[in-house]
Automatic annotation (TrEMBL):
PROSITE patterns: CYTOCHROME_P450. Belongs to the cytochrome P450 family. Heme binds at C434. This is Cytochrome P450. One of its GO terms (cellular component) is membrane. Its main location: membrane. It comes from the Eukaryota. It comes from Stephania yunnanensis. It is found in: Membrane. It is a single-pass membrane protein. Keywords: Heme, Iron, Membrane, Metal-binding, Monooxygenase, Oxidoreductase, Transmembrane, Transmembrane helix. Residues 1-15 have a biased composition (Polar residues). The keyword Metal-binding applies.
Length: 496
């Protein structure tokens, strides 16, 4: 284990400018690469002293398994960062809440009322509508210009899917909430995400908060107010509809309707508004960016590798054919596409440091003493490029994930999770693992299957670059723009 005396200046992302996901943004610092370098140079477990805070980082499957599974009870908490306090209602949500009874209750509410198999099945028709809308969106765009901005298309797909389930409305497309509200909504979500991903020096050197030279906390307070206003309106609209219905006719209930109907803590008749707001915000933030960023990376890598595109399309033509659209029931049979998604997660994990964990007791890892309150940066970016684990780490080669053919001649389903070997970690593991993984996988596979089945893709004149920027998620630096050509009969596009 290597000990740094002060951490490194590159770990601070303060002042790197706000992230506008519609446009290019400066690359800024890449702390996941700095910490990957530390592990390759000093060993699989590195200790850092960041101002007043103890921290460790690792890129090693066995150490990750030790932290997330064997010592899960000790490492299942979260640091209370300044951003989390401002932007997650004082850590009153699920994702940023410290381990304890509040976190348990909030997580259970999400699992039971949004993410249970039954609820996911109830929303299948919305997902089909959004998949159809995605195809129509690209079809319409290529009649204006062959160049398609995939960041816009995929961002709208994820946002619509999530807001339909949560808020009961689509934000982009016909019958949507309207372009102004949609843009405001997108912008706030992206600013929120950018601020949450920021490694803010004030978390490590309290004196920094007095100076705040880049106005980070001011930005946090500003976004906090705008987001809160947005959530206030959503709750008000839902209450009004409930009152107007007067209990007579109950339409389909979205997540906000359900939250409004649940009892609160300690015998209260209803949940507090602040709890409802924290949950809405968490779900939107956790579900939209992660799946949109993953889809954009997968499209970029596949368009860059025409051999992979051909193989995906051969599989789709065999499993689905050319005379109907892909459905969710096809997804388990798209073995090669599933390998493409695994390979995308290996090279471009949506959460390069997961969401940082924090220890609640002193413990021993790999023979080293780890004090209570140590911040844990599990570097999934470095894990996917760890040369002790993977060969040819810079090569995008989905075949490496193909599992062997079983005795009966059928291939086993390729799982898009960490598996027993912990060689990739897209959704984490243990108590804090992503509760939305099945839904996230459905969003990703559906969008990719539809786009590769319905269209041929080629790079634009500028080619495809694969540079990333750091954030809570790790998006491509430049939005992906590519040339699309229909590959199904014309009537297929009119029937969706
Ligand atoms: C491709 C899509 C997705 C990816 C790659 C992803 C990945 C992750 C990762 C890496 C974490 C951090 C786990 C940790 O810190 O150990 C996480 C947490 C979380 N995710 Fe996801 N996620 C995705 C989709 C979703 C969806 C669709 C939802 C819900 C609608 C969701 C809800 C959450 C929540 C609530 C947490 C916090 C869990 C906790 O702290 O207890 N995610 N996700």
């Amino acid at each position: 284990m290597w000990r740094s005396s002060t951490g490194r200046a590159t770990l601070s992302c303060d002042g790197s400018g706000t992230r506008g996901r519609g446009q290019d943004h400066p690359r800024g610092p890449l702390p996941h690469r700095d910490l990957a370098y530390f592990c390759s140079k000093y060993g699989p477990l590195v200790y850092l002293r960041l101002g007043g805070v103890d921290a460790i980082t690792t890129d090693d499957p066995d150490i990750i398994r030790e932290i997330l599974l064997k010592q899960d009870d000790i490492f299942a908490s979260r640091p209370k960062t300044v951003a989390a306090i401002h932007l997650a209602y004082g850590c009153g949500d699920v994702a940023l809440a410290p381990f304890g009874s509040h976190w348990k209750r909030m997580r259970r509410i999400c699992m039971e009322h949004l993410l249970s198999t039954k609820r996911l099945e109830l929303f299948v028709n919305h997902r089909v509508n959004e998949a159809n809308h995605l195809v129509r969106d690209v079809w319409k765009r290529i009649h204006v210009s062959k160049l398609v901005n995939l960041r816009e298309v995929l961002g709208a797909f994820s946002m619509n899917n999530v807001t339909r389930m949560l808020l009961g409305k689509q934000y982009f497309g016909a019958g949507s909430a309207g372009p102004e509200e949609a843009m405001e909504f997108m912008n706030i979500t992206h600013e929120l995400f950018w601020l949450l991903g920021l490694i803010y020096l004030g978390d490590y050197l309290p004196i920094w908060r007095w100076i705040d030279p880049f106005g980070c906390e001011k930005k946090m307070r500003d976004v906090e107010k705008r987001v809160d206003e947005f959530h206030r309106k959503i709750i008000e609209e839902h209450r009004k509809v409930r009152n107007d219905q007067n209990g007579d006719e109950k339409g389909e209930m979205d997540f906000v309707d359900i939250l409004l109907s649940l009892p609160g803590e300690d015998g209260k008749e209803h949940m507090d508004d602040v709890e409802i707001k924290a949950l809405i915000q968490d779900m939107i933030a956790a579900a939209t960016d992660t799946s949109a960023v993953t889809n954009e990376w997968a499209m970029a890598e596949v368009i860059k590798h025409p051999r992979v595109l051909r193989r995906i399309q051969e599989e789709l033509d065999e499993v689905v054919g050319l005379h109907r659209m892909v459905t969710e029931s096809d997804l388990p049979h798209l073995t090669y596409l599933r390998c493409v998604v695994r390979e995308t997660f290996r090279m471009h994990p949506a959460g390069p440091f997961l969401i940082p964990h924090e220890s609640t007791k002193p413990t021993i890892i790999n023979g080293y003493h780890i004090p209570e309150g140590t911040r844990v940066f599990i570097n999934t970016y470095a894990l996917g490029r760890n040369r002790r684990v993977w060969d040819n780490v810079e090569e995008f080669r989905p075949e490496r994930h193909l599992v062997s053919v079983t005795g009966s001649g059928t291939r086993e389903r390729v799982e898009i999770s960490h598996g027993a070997d912990f060689k990739i970690l897209p959704f984490s593991a243990g108590k804090r693992k992503c509760p939305g993984a099945p839904l996230g996988v459905a969003f990703v596979l559906t969008a990719l299957a539809r786009l590769f089945h319905c269209f041929d893709w080629a790079p634009s004149g500028e080619g495809i670059d694969t540079e990333e920027v750091y954030g809570m998620t790790m998006p491509k630096a430049k939005p992906l723009v590519a040339v699309a050509t229909p590959r199904l009969a014309t009537n297929m596009y009119y029937s969706v």
